[in-house]
Amino acid sequence: MSEEKELSYSEAIQRAGTNICRFPLIPVRGIPLMCYIANNWDSIWAFRPDPSDLLIATYPKAGTTWTQEIVDLLQNNGDAEACKRAPTPVRSPFLEIFSPPPIPSGLDQLKKTDPPRIIKTHLPLQLVPTGFWENKCKVIYVARNAKDNLVSYFHFDCMNLTQPEPGPWEGYIPKFMRGELPWGSWYDHVKGYWTERETKNILYLFYEDMKENPRREVERIMRYLDLSVSDEVISRIVELTSFKNMKENPMANYSCVPAPVFDQSISSFMRKGEVGDWRNHFTPEQSKMFDEDYEKQMKDVNIPFRDLI
């Protein structure tokens, strides 16, 4: 069953063939989104989740897949085989994603999946369909420090052949700072969910905390989801969701997405998963320029990000 699902998803991407390209961005309410998403915005905005659905929200490359896998394992009591039933985008549909036919959209995948569902989004808070708030759905948000997030997004944009051409590293930094990337400004994204975390019952997690003490954060997610699993199962989930194990897991490493879309010869989808890798990319001058801009853009909030200096 899982092999059939995996093949159908991969074959759909393969069959899209020459329709795959770097899609231009179109603003939706001021947020740059890939044209296929923007052109289908009305159907995305109209989506009505079930109250039992869980939304996992992140800025791109902030620990989304990691969190999806943790949640799926928690919901399946640490059963690794159950979580190999299908690739991540089938087990946990990507709400707003639209691509050329016959690639299934996120909404298509959601129609095939019975609640309760694990739903992924990169939408900033103001673009999340209102049904999630009206139905009081649980939401897990994961934030990653800006410099590491920027580095990871740059490498992802190099290998993801559907997103705009990233250009050289030195030009990518100001684009990130100005929010001229798919899904917009990192600053507005992390601030939007942070300021609403209590009123909307959002579990706000930090990537750096998850790296520092994964067991503690898995237990936080478990409690938020009103689940209870044994200490032994928690230990198993921590092990199964280590970067090494996830990188080797074909159901989690996006190897189901063929090279015309994700060219993993350029960069792996799961590249390093480290904290502080930005130091291998930023020059002292770039870091100083970024820090000054960061100070201005984040002066109105006090989100406890770490490892930025």
From TrEMBL:
Family listed: Belongs to the sulfotransferase 1 family.
Keyword DNA damage included in the entry's annotation: no
Gene Ontology terms: cellular component: cytoplasm
UniProt protein name: Sulfotransferase
GO biological process, one term: catecholamine metabolic process
SUPFAM superfamilies named among the record's database cross-references: P-loop containing nucleoside triphosphate hydrolases
One Gene Ontology MF term: sulfotransferase activity
Pfam family, one: Sulfotransfer_1
EC identifiers of the protein: 2.8.2.-
Species: Zoarces viviparus
Domain Sulfotransferase: 51-301
Keyword Mitochondrion: no
EC main group: transferase
Compartments, as annotated in UniProt: Cytoplasm
Keywords assigned by UniProt, alphabetized: Catecholamine metabolism, Cytoplasm, Transferase
